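User: Predict the structure for this protein chain, please.
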Amino acid sequence: MSDLEYVTNRDLTNSQGKSSGKIKILKMHGEDAQVEFVCPECGFKKDSRVKWMEPFVNGAGSGQYFLLVCGKCNQKTKILRLKKELKKK
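Assistant: Here is the predicted structure, written as structure tokens:
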């Protein structure tokens, strides 16, 4: 049995629809989430550990999403669950 709780590795689009950012999240049971983020608007890069709770994780079940705020330009990036994001397209 794996201790992996959540993982994602996605490209992020900016306000012009261009793929210019990236997000990687790795969450193991009992640990903080490891987050690698490249802002799609300004290109700011940040690696951090984030507690797996509000305000990082919002909603519940299939409506769950993650909200990241760029430390440089304050751009808010909402990351939907992949299943929900695919239905949107």
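Residues 4-83 form one domain.
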